[in-house]
Amino acid sequence: SVAQVDETRARVLLAQGRNSEAEKTVRAAVRKLESGGEPALLAEALTTHGIAQARLGKHQESRLTLERAIEVAEQAGNPEGAGLAALALIEELGERLTPNELDATYERADTLLANSQQLETLARLRACARLCLAARQTGPQEPSAPSFIYRDQRTAELLREARAVAASEGAVLLTGETGTGKELLARLIHQWSGRRGEFVTVDCAALTAAASESQLFGPSGAVRQAAGGTLFLDEVAALGAADQSWLLRLIERGEILSDGATRIETVDVRIIAASARNLTAASSGVRSDLFYRLNALQIEIPPLRERPEDIPALAEHFIKETRAKTGKRVEFMPEAVEAMRRLPLPGNVRQLRSLIQQTVLTADTDANVTPEAVEIVALRLTQKASFADPWEGFSLDEEVLCFEGKLIRQALAEAKGSITHAARLLGITYQGLAYILQNRQRGLLPERTPAQRRRRSIIKIPYRKKKKR
């Protein structure tokens, strides 16, 4: 039931253009349903997951997920669900399929949906038929080359470094906060390298322990799909010990041994790994020998707050992009775009894009975004709000509570969990901080260091009788 709610919520998030949140939510639903014995529900969640992946640019992963959704639905005796997954494959990835692949997928969807009475489904089927006919006439379209929007000098230096790295054949490690553009930079490195094979993306955090080896190194796994090209391993530290061992062998010798195979095979593939946190040999979760091989060519992408000149450039790009997709002419004052430089943006580029998309989608056609609206959104810590209605869902109590919690968390981190030290940093008493933690900031209790009980002295003081006077 929880997984069904997550899947429904993910579809709502997709409709709102909040693709990253949708992908994260439905991924959790898929994990729950993997062992739930409900294949029809699993197929539905996989379809939603595949759509989210496609809209995040994870095209190879999306195709594998949607094809799996078709198979799971068919095995569950649910032709309607399988047909809907096939339609999603055409709708989301049609421009990346050859005319023959499109025709085969459409014929499969048409057969699976032969008995469907749903008007919306039949309309989608007709739209996919038109797409297939158009593809026969024009042929497959090449996907547009990726571009890294920037204006800041620090980003220019970063791209120069990446272009120099692209000329080598060694493994590359990209680090940077969530949403800074690690996958986009990896695609650029692949493009600049001149490798003719595919660019294949794998989210290591989404791999299940039981299936990871086959998905990576199996006969139809990601390594073979990327032969002659580049394999991008996002959140590489999430790989298990066995997969790390084979990845090290692949990097050092270009060798793999798939499950059930009798001999080692050689594959020409370049590895680009990524992590949202800075990895170290001691505490990263990556075995030391693999870490040193990955870290030989390492590029760190700084967060947007450290390259503020990029923010207006990115904002202008996302405004034009969203206007073109929606047809809405929401106006952003030049001062409002400039004010975006002061946004905190912990989610970096991804958050800025989502914020602008949400604004255009929810605003009236003649809405005008002011710098004051941007300033209000920048001050808010709790609920997301669009620039079109920055006060929506605002609660002063919640904002103050969130700000208080943020300061206490930082003080406890600085004090290494000591309430006494943290209270001194915050300028309040020990009793005052303890009261706050026990009442309105209970979520921060795990951040404290448990108090140590004072041991009794091992020296016994002899009892002395009082002398009678």
List the helices and strands and how they pair.
Layout: H1 2-15, H2 19-34, H3 39-55, H4 59-75, H5 79-93, H6 99-112, H7 119-138, H8 153-166, E1 172-175, H9 182-193, E2 199-203, H10 212-217, H11 222-225, E3 230-234, H12 241-253, E4 255-256, E5 265-266, E6 270-275, H13 288-294, E7 298-300, H14 310-326, E8 331-332, H15 334-339, H16 348-362, E9 368-369, H17 371-379, H18 396-414, H19 419-426, H20 430-438
Parallel strand pairs: 1-6, 1-7, 2-3, 3-6, 8-9
Antiparallel strand pairs: 4-5
Helix pairs in contact: 1-2, 1-3, 2-3, 3-4, 3-5, 4-5, 5-6, 5-7, 6-7, 8-9, 14-16, 18-19, 19-20
What would the keywords be for this entry?
54% helix, 469 residues, two-stranded antiparallel sheet, alpha/beta
Overview of the molecule:
Helix content is 54%, strand content 7%. The chain is an alpha/beta fold. The strands form three sheets. It has a five-stranded parallel beta sheet with strand order 2-3-6-1-7. The relative contact order is 0.07. The model is unreliable at 140-145 (pLDDT under 50).
